[in-house]
Amino acid sequence: MKKVRNDFIMAGIVLIISIIFTILVATIDVQPSGVSGSDLGFSTLNRSVFNSIGTNDAIYLATEILGYIFILPAAVFAVLGIIQLIKRKSLKKVDLHYWALLGLYIAVAATYVFFELVIVNYRPVLIDGKAEASYPSSHTMLAITVLLSSFLMVCRLVKNRTIKFVALGITTVGSVAMAILRLYSGVHWATDIIGGVLISIALVLIFNAVLTLLDYMQFKKAEKCASSESNKANNEPFIDNTKGNTEQPKENGTDSIKNNNTKSDTAGSDANGAQSGADAIVPSADKQEDADTLIKS
Description:
This protein is an all-alpha fold. The chain is 78% helix and 0% strand. The chain has 9 helices and no strands.
């Protein structure tokens, strides 16, 4: 539970920092030095960086292509969630991790719409002849959010350390590359990139905290089920299946003893009878001697 609390605290701190930075961009050193004389926060800093870098159409095109590529992980997890829904035939049986990921994507989309409506500043250049909202860098925010969240999901779904290491490498390189290339394309101010990084990291940290909370809830649920099963097993009456087998030989042994005693009694009776018969025979012999003596006399 302590880890869950710490994750939420960290996410909250970064979120607050991103909000404060956004407010500063909208209020500090604001000058009409943007495209078509539009207001620009941190004007001196942003102008200095832009003038030193300029614009690059090739890099801009590369970042546009990368933006579509980085959407693929989100599509993959969407397909996995749909497959799980089809197999389990119930929205309630879909893993909560997929719902948390969907919530993150919705939060990213809501953030994008919010800054399209509440414009902090415009791009340094016109896109197709139009001035577009520039803060925060949506490509940077999308790349970091999708790649980092995908890595967190991979860590929970895959046990292979090699796959995790590869996923971490792709996430790191992809996120850093998008932020740098988007800046060097010349279609964003430096503060747009910084804001995109801060906001996306805040959103991902909140997502990670939610995942940690879900893991903790699942652990406690499994622990409760195991405890319940253990208590149920302890409360069931114990049946000793060996008792009957143990007593049977005793009964047989008792019967054997009784039979032996009976045989002994019978043998004793026979012996007594034989002795009585012998005693009966001896007196008869004595009487015969007396008779013979009388006759001789």
